[in-house]
UniProtKB/TrEMBL annotation:
Belongs to the glycosyl hydrolase 42 family. Residues 9-381 form the Glycoside hydrolase family 42 N-terminal domain. It holds the Pfam family Glyco_hydro_42M. The keyword DNA damage does not apply. GO terms for molecular function: beta-galactosidase activity; metal ion binding. InterPro entries: Beta_galactosidase_C, Beta_galactosidase_Trimer, Class_I_gatase-like, GH, Glyco_hydro_42, Glyco_hydro_42_N, Glyco_hydro_b. One of its GO terms (biological process) is galactose metabolic process. One of its GO terms (cellular component) is beta-galactosidase complex. It catalyses: Hydrolysis of terminal non-reducing beta-D-galactose residues in beta-D-galactosides. This is Beta-galactosidase. Zn(2+) binds at residues 110, 150, 152, 155. Keywords: Glycosidase, Hydrolase, Metal-binding, Zinc. Residues 605-663 form the Beta-galactosidase C-terminal domain.
Amino acid sequence: MRKVRYGGDYNPEQWPDAVWDRDHELFDLARIDTLTVGVFVWALTNPAEGVYDFAVLDRIVERAAAEGRSVCLATGTGAHPPWLARAYPEVTRTDFEGRRHRFGQRHNSCPSSPAFQRLSAELARRVAQRYAGSPAVVAWHVGNEYGGACYCDLCGEAFRAWLRQRYTTLDALNAAWYTTFWSHRFTDWAQIEPPSALTEHWRGPDHTAFQGITLDYLRFMSDAMLANFRAEKAAIRAHSGLPVTTNLMGMYRPIDYHRWADDLDFASWDNYPPDDTSQARMALAHDLMRGLKGGQPFWLMEQTPSCTASRDVNPLKRPGLLRLWSWQAVAHGADAVLYFQMRASRGACEKYHGAVIGHGDRSDTRVFREVADLGAELERLGDATLGARTPARVALLFDWDSWWVLEISDGPNRLVRYLDVVLAYHRALWDAGADLDVVPVTADLTGYDVVVAPALHMVKGDLATRLEAVAARGGSVLTTFLSGRVDVDDLAFPSDVPGPLAPLMGIRVDEWDARPPDVVNPVRLGSSTVESRLIFELVVPDGAEVVGTYGADFYAGTPAVTRHAFGAGHGWYVGAGLDGAGVAWVVRRVLARHDLLGPYADLADVETTVRVDPAGRRIRFVLNHRTGPVEIPVHAGGVDLLTDTRFHGGQTVKVDPYGVLVVAEDR
């Protein structure tokens, strides 16, 4: 049966056969159809160099096939085994402080280690060769949650090779890094060191004397781990044409997932929100992951059915949240809903991490019942949403380079964090019910009526020209403070701020003021007064219309928000760190011009999204994130795919607390 895949990470190698029997009984009860196996079996399948033993993994895969379940088969390289670190000490990482690690943990492999590169790819090759013909295997899972930087000599050598390829000459590198400052001009490639606590950083990872060096090392390390992924994928490809992925981590700063997108056959990610009120944040992360592959559906590879074990405090999901958040993933493009973990481990650091099957081995717990009920709902849904896409006319630009350079820069205010700004503008779009894509700055923007680019600190390539084209044909482009500041090398544009965005925005910024968060400058927007904090740019209109003004300090009465007519459209500029109400005021006016406010824009925490299936049918999801019920008018007639209830346009429907509607709208 074609349906949204349902299941998750399963580690039967930790258990005797009798437990396996019980597991599969419970999997049947919960409608579990897909298992991710073999994620951490390197020490089991490759117990010594040149020695391979697949007996246990054979039985795991064979049992899944016999039970009629699909397998997402991992290469097992998520953590290297003790013998590898003993035989090749250079395989372990050197940290930011310059300390060479010994064996331990999991993210402890140097991506530049020849031994790690060779032996991880060889294990991937053998796994693919052995299981390519298994009827159970539907996808390959490489590594696990890539992350963690290394600063060893091997990485230093690889960094210098990466720089040679990027810049070709030392003159070009010196120019990009602005090395005439502080007598840093390099005259030999060998003089270049990885930026760490022992070199350019004196107050931690975000404080660097030379942003260009640190920026390039962030890019290099992301590429180095991508090279590890590519090597394993190539080894798999020699034996199998099935799709290959790795589990990403949403808005994870160390790795630029846009640089990885072309190498992923499909995107997948692990969703572990920090609290029970992260629904907007999760929506942004889902949209970001979907945007990696141009809007293709993704897999929710991991989520907890109850609680995590990785934080100081690990709250339990309230009753109903598991169902609601799983449906939210489907609403934003998930074609798989999977858990970590299927059975709770008895020992080590994740023994208290939530699981479908707990230590008591019971099927009558609240968590298991919720998992089983959701499995039944997904079974009823069938293939209705598979391959469906989001018909977005709004794009939110997300840029790792801007994230990195904004947060490693000295000035104007280190309390301004890239994600905070992006989350604020996404939250306003989410509250307004706009269907949107989260896309890289290199994306084709021709299909969007509105482009929102918060804190677009770095402007690369022809982006400014493409944004102008959006406005010229009648669209709206919205950007904010600290945008248009630097080029691809993190060098300030030799022009007025906002650099190449100035013609579109119709302004210049001569000065900027930064204050601690307890300093508030009121901003007047129409008949409303909102608050702004942290950053206050002094905006000088150069053709732009003043929309909002500051209310305090020596720049009281000067522009804080502007709108500039450009072609048939507009460029909006927000020069102040507006509060949520202020951001919402601006965003809703931009959306209203294009008739893009959602049908429930005035109902807080009632989320609506649309997916369009391959046949053109619109499927509307309505998600009630409130702890109480809400009554809503039906936007368009159709059938709720979860209950077979028919709705008529305009009919009032009650949605329960944490309730979900999945309405296939009439054509």
